[in-house]
Amino acid sequence: MFASSSVRPPIPPELAATLRPVSFATHRRIALDEPWRGLVPGEGLRRGSTISVQAPSGAGGLSLALSLLAGASARGHWAAVVGVDDPGVLAMADLGVDLRRVLFVPRPRGAWAESVADVLDGVDLVIVRPPSRAARGSARVLSDRVRERGAVLLVVSESASTWPLPVELSFSVTHAQWSASSRLEDRTLRVRIEGRAGVRGAEHVVVLPDRRGRAAGG
Amino acid sequence: MERLIGVWVESLRVEALDGSTLRESLALLDALEVVCPFTELIHLGFYALPSRGPSRFFGGEERVLEAVTTVVRDVLGREASLGVADGLVWCEFAARDGVVVEPGKTDDYRRARPLAALGRRDLATTGRRLGLRTVGDFADLERARVSERFSASVLVLHQVARGELDELPGQRDARLGARLGRLREADRPDEQRGFFGQRGAADDRAHAAALRLRQRLGADGVVVAALRGGRLPQDRAALVPWGSPTAVSQDDAPWPGQLRAPSPATVFAHRVAVELRGAANETVRVDARGTLNTTPTTFAFASGAVRAVTWYAGPWPLVERWWAVGRRRAQLQVLLETGEALLLVAESGRWSLAGVYD
Predict the structure, then answer these.
(1) pLDDT above 90 covers what percent of chain B?
(2) In this predicted structure, what is the pLDDT of residue B6?
(3) Chain A residue with minimum CA distance to B313
(4) Could you tell me how far CA B250 lies from the centroid of its own chain?
(5) In a domain, A69, yes or no
(6) What pLDDT is recorded for position A11?
(7) Residue A59 counted as domain residue
(8) Is the residue at A15 inside a domain?
(9) pLDDT by residue (tens digit) across A135-190?
(10) Around Cβ B118, how many Cβ atoms within 10 Å?
(11) A:B CB pairs within 8 Å
(12) pLDDT (tens digit per residue) in B68-104
């Protein structure tokens, strides 16, 4: 009956006040889309975790981080991008990111860590590209806050030393190769995914971006 | 050791039975987090925040201290005692004394404290008999001498006295975080508002965060994006300050002359001048028929860094407003020896970097 009715029965306010959304184990993870779904334990990013994305300059680190955002954003999660001075909005849309639910903090000046801390109060996923190596103290406070708020922090950098603390999951691009004809067609990345808890390091091949600007399995 | 600003509020030290102390402490914590989100409530009556970041942001430590004073006055209607020093232990003493210990002077400040400052009466008494009056005297004892005479807990204090540890055991109230968390939960019954499909609680949370960021960074600190018509990636992305009255409409219609996907993940909003040269070091030009005068072989940033070009595609001419003189642009994709792929734009004989396929 409910299934065919577009109107939900009204809930008395005093009852509604006592209700809590059902919490499944899957709610403790933010689901990923293909191709990442099959490559990451639990098919998603665990809430409360800090994740690193590393790639040499121009080798697709930013695209990779943005593609991790895409599925969640399309499912209604809010996200923020901090410290990416000149985001490629068109590329984000091609990847499947819903731009209506993304806050950009392009140039936080000296206050990147403070900006991340602020924005963690309001969104589920935060991509940050720190301008320099993060101080141990701020990294610790940010990790704690990520855990407390149940958010996910993706730290994009060119080297592992940018984030001084261990991370839950790390994606590192070990090789990037463009294929081109009369124009750039697609890029094949070899990505090493390593985790802290029971995830053996393994290397995967991913096409990012492909001809349509999306991420695809290799 | 990190330079910290301490906030000492005497009236919040002793917890009242009606829970008002905890509530006021939380209110002050939330308010101080606007000054610096790394503010921590160490124990009731004492807050600490880093000095470096906020000082850079506010333009000096004095300014931060002024801001903190104002916040405390606004929230509690009382004055707080503020202090600055390196390390949590000495920051608390400085706050209690209401002094700013100059950078690099914390060692002197620490050594001059009476031994009783470490909080152990037995140690202070024994120390007095041994002629150790200050923390400095105690610190000068050899570690082996201390371990002969005292228990392990005093060894930790010895490390604090020597400046090797920056926190006294028990200085932080370990249960406080959980208690504040419960209080916060209880105060947030409307978190479930989006449960039955209205504008979600998540949207409200995001807007609140954006508002706070805007307070921190200024009107254009937070930006939202949308797509609109245009030929170049930088024309197609509309980035507008969050909350600005000009609503952005989503327009994803195809636009003649625009390059198909993939698009660069980094798109420069401002012109980034670059140079593109051929084998004989001559500047590459796009002629009136939309062809290059030579094959590009080297690419140089304005900074002087030079890279070899291994592949290029284009140029794709963009003839816009052909009735206006000089508006002739062309796009070129290049691959560098480093594997980086770039999108370049030529206009009036000058090259600029439009985007990086990062």
Answers:
(1) 23
(2) 95
(3) A183
(4) 31
(5) yes
(6) 60
(7) yes
(8) no
(9) 888 899 999 889 888 899 999 999 878 899 889 999 999 999 999 888 889 999 99
(10) 21
(11) 228
(12) 999 999 888 888 999 999 999 999 999 998 899 999 8
Bond preceding residue B262 cis, omega within 30 of 0? yes
pLDDT at A102: 92
- Pick from B276, B265, B269: which is nearest to B356 by CA? B265
* Phi, psi for residue B25 in degrees, rounded to 5: -60, -40
For residue B195, pLDDT over 80 is answered with no
Give the residue from A118, A144, A178 with the most B CB atoms within 10 Å of its CB, the best one to mutate. A118
Check residues B83 and B241 and name the one with the higher pLDDT. Answer: B83
List the domain range (segments joined by +) for residue A80.
Answer: 29-217
Task: Name, of B22-31, B257-266, B327-336, the range with top average pLDDT.
Answer: B22-31
Rounded to whole angstroms, what are the CA distances from B169 to A96, B97, B119, B346? 50, 21, 10, 64
Predicted pLDDT at A12: 62
A3 is a domain residue: no
Chain-chain contact of B357 with A77 (C-beta, under 8 angstroms): no
Which residues fall within 8 angstroms of residue A13, CB to CB, at 6 or more apart? none
Q: How many domains does chain A have?
A: 1
Residues in B 32-51 with any Cβ partner in A closer than 8 A: 36-38, 40, 50
B56 interfaces chain A, CB cutoff of 8 Å: yes
Number of separate helices (H) and strands (E) present in chain B: 12, 13
Partners of B269 on chain A (C-beta within 8 Å) are 86
Residue ranges of chain A with per-residue pLDDT less than 70: 1-27, 197-200
Which domains, ranges and CATH numbers included, belong to chain B? 3-161 (3.30.70.270), 266-356 (no CATH)
Strands B296-301 and B273-278: antiparallel
Amino acid at B318: L
Using a 10 angstrom Cβ sphere, with 0-12 exposed, 13-18 middle and 19 or more buried, the burial of residue B187 is exposed
Q: Which residues does B325 contact at the CB level (< 8 Å), separation at least 6?
A: none
* 3-class DSSP state of A144: helix
The amino acid present at B55, given as its one-letter code, is S
Tell which phi-psi region holds residue A42, choosing left (phi > 0), alpha (psi between -120 and 50) or beta: left
Which residues 321-350 of B have a C-beta within 8 angstroms of A? Answer: 333, 335-336, 338-341
What mean pLDDT value characterizes chain B?
Answer: 82
* pLDDT at residue A206, as a whole number: 92
Nearest-by-Cβ selection for A103 from B195, B224, B356: B224
Q: Please tell me which of the candidates B53, B263, B338 has its beta carbon nearest to residue A91.
A: B263
Write the CATH number for A191.
Answer: 3.40.50.300
Q: CB B188: neighbour CB atoms within 10 A?
A: 10
Which ipTM value was assigned to this complex? 0.82
